[in-house]
Every structure is written in C-alpha cells, then in structure tokens.
Amino acid sequence: MIEIGFLKKFGSKRWSPTFSMMLEHANLTINVIRSLRDAISLRARGEKESSLRKIRQIDAVEHEADQLRRRIMAKLTEGVLPPISRQDLVHLTRRLDYITDYAHEAARFLTYIDLAKMPDDLKEGIIKLAEETLRCAEATREAVKEIGSDFSKCLELCDEVERIEVVCDNLFQDLIGKLPCIRNLPAGLLLLVHDLILSLENVSDACENTIDVMRAVVIRASG
Questions:
Q1: I need a surface site. Which of 68, 73, 105, 109 has the fewest CB within 10 A?
Q2: 128 membership: H or E segment, kind and range
C-alpha cells in the first residue's frame, strides 16, 4: 500500500515551494469555476449585471493564474531536480492550467447568452452541470493537495474525480440532446449555448486528464 507522498520521498525543502504554488494555482482554479457557477445561476435568473461582474472577476483571476503558472515553470528550472520528476510537474501544471482556461472560455460564451430566456429544463441542466463541474474541480484540487503527502489518499481522490467526470459527461450528453428540440431560438444563439455546454464539459475532461498525470506521478515516485 502506497503511504508516502512527494514531500516525504524527495525532501520537503526541495519540493515544498513548488507544491505550495501548485496548490495556490489549484485554489485559483476553484475560484474561477465557483464564480462561473454563480455567474450562470445569476444569468439564468435574469440578473445580467451581477452575472457580468462575476465574469469580470473570472477574467482577473484567470490572469492571476496564468502569472502563477509562469512562476511555477520558472521555479522548475531552478536547482537540480530528478528529470522525470521535473517533467511530471511541468505536465501537471499545464493540465491544471487547462482547467482554468476552459472555465474562462465558458465565461466568455456566457457573456452573450441570456439564459433567463432559455427553456427551464435547459437552464436547470446547465446549472446542474456547472455545479458538478465545480465538484469535479474541487476533488482535483484535493488530489493535488494530497500528492505532496499521502499517495494513497491522492489515488482515492483521483478515483472520485473520475466518478464525478462520468456524471458531468452524462449531463453533457443530456443537454446536447435537448438543443435540436429548441425551435424558437436563432441558430447562432443555439451555437453559443452549445459552446458554453461544451466548455463546461471540457473543464471536467481537463480534471480527468490532470488526475491521469497525477496517477503517473504516483507510479513513478513509488517505483
């Protein structure tokens, strides 16, 4: 049974600053997706200005996350680290950044969509997908936290991310299936709604890709 994490295996002084920044990046990602969830709910209730304020917050936090990613990459070029371990952390950092990027993309599509005028079942489905997407990202963040100290817990959380991603995928398929049945909306608007739904699905897919990298890290580190 795998019991130790990166910080215990390779030494906390060498790895702790990098993991602290990675966890900070994961926390920023959660803030982005939480704001996206809130922006979608506000837009669905017809509160356009409040929703747009949330979207502007997303823009600012996404920019902050990009700056932090560059700092992490710079940190990984310092000192003498095991080549495989450095490569793993580079991949992990990039995967985390994809989560934020897709959430930011979804927020941009939301800017042009009046969800309040959408059919109720479509609105409710998009809100539900946003909530499950947030849950998936939160589990991913917890897995990042545990990879530094407890490989077994990290792997458990990776499994949880995978289970939630399946829920998100089912919600995505259901929502996509509803779009052809909507007759009273312009084709261009329906395309924007499709892209919003797809971006939300891409967030959970990016979470799954992130935990695939984490599993590979655990296997190499424990070998």
A1: 73
A2: helix 120-147
Tens-place pLDDT, residues 158-202: 999 999 999 999 999 999 999 998 888 888 999 999 999 999 999
CB of 108 within 8 A of CB of 178? no
Residues contacting residue 47 through CB under 8 Å, at least 6 positions apart: none
Helix 120-147 vs helix 187-222: crossing angle, to nearest 10: 20
Structure tokens at 217: 């890290």
Give residue limits of the domains in the chain: 6-222
Residue 204 class from Cβ within 10 Å (0-12 exposed, 13-18 middle, 19+ buried)? buried
Sign of CA dihedral 26, 86, 102, 71: positive
Give the residue among 206, 215, 207 at the shortest CA–CA distance from 151. Answer: 215
CB atoms within 10 A of CB 120: 8
Residue 91: alpha-carbon gap to chain centroid: 15
Give the 3-state secondary structure of residue 149: coil
Q: How is domain 6-222 classified at the architecture level of CATH?
A: Up-down Bundle (1.20)
The pLDDT tens digits for 98-129 are 999 999 999 999 999 999 989 999 999 999 99
Q: Which of 146, 113, 110 is nearest to 130 (CA)?
A: 110
182 φ/ψ angles, rounded to the nearest 5 degrees: -90, 115
Choose among 127, 107, 128, 122: nearest CA to 41.
127
Under 8 Å between Cβ of 125 and 196: no
For residue 150, the SS3 value is coil
Q: Structure tokens of 168? A: 């998100």
